[in-house]
Amino acid sequence: MSRSFRAKAARRLAARRTMAVIGWIVLGAGYFLFIPIFHAIGLFAVLVIGAGWTWAVLWSIAAVVSYLAVRSYGRAAAGLAIAVAAGALLWTTDWTLAHVRSVLWLGEAGFAELAADYESGRPIEVQPWMSYLVMDGEAEAQPGALYFPVFVDWRGEYGEGFAYLRGGGSPQAVTRTQTLIQTAPGDLGEPAIDLGGGWWWVE
């Protein structure tokens, strides 16, 4: 094997490995930012995720094949294992909940102020940095909860989102009262996952 061939193979392998890494990073970002992407382009967001998977998987396969071509079997196996692990992590993680939890944590003071306004009956004004989380940019002050509609199907028959439950919504109180929340024109949801601080994921 000539030196020039090895140099070309090394450059090709490095390029494919870089493209694979970029693909997995972009795919992870697409999953984490799925809520704002979905609100911006609707169901085309699914195509964005599909394109991310195609990019990441194909370039990962190309990188593994390049390792095999230069008989670097250990690195080929390691690359394949890393790609499989990355794919499994992205596929099994609930990225919508991860995003909502992170926003509630980072904006804890702002959401606490919003909850206090709701409890006291004051007008609800969603701050601009929160508005991207909801379908129309506005939270819904319902009798038992302040609801943020995150997803609503095109027929208005099913919805999901998160809500602050009146009174702080302890797990014991939620189990006891079975709070119902209007999640779409034709759907009622229940608090399903405790997000902390009186906030719940509703489905």
Description:
The protein has 203 residues and is an alpha+beta fold. The protein folds into two domains: 90 residues; 105 residues, no CATH class. It is 59% helix and 17% strand. The protein is built from eight helices and seven strands. It has a five-stranded antiparallel β-sheet, with helices on one face. It has a two-stranded antiparallel ribbon with strand order 4-5. Helix 1 packs antiparallel against helix 3 and helix 1 runs parallel beside helix 4. The N and C termini lie far apart (61 Å).
Provide tags for this entry.
single chain, 203 residues, alpha+beta, 2 domains, five-stranded antiparallel β-sheet, two-stranded antiparallel sheet, 59% helix
* Overall shape: elongated
Beta percentage is: 15-25%
Order of adjacent strands in the largest pleated sheet:
1-2-3-7-6
Beta strands, count:
7
> Regarding quaternary structure, how should these chains be classified?
single chain
Q: Mind describing the biggest β-sheet?
A: 5 strands, antiparallel
Radius of gyration: 23 Å
- The separation of the N and C termini measures 61 Å
Poorly predicted regions are none
What is the N-to-C succession of helices and strands? HHHHHHHEEEHEEEE
Mean pLDDT metric: 86
Number of helices: 8
User: SS-based structural class?
Assistant: alpha+beta
Instruction: Give the count of structural domains.
Output: 2
- Give the proportion of residues in helices: 55-70%
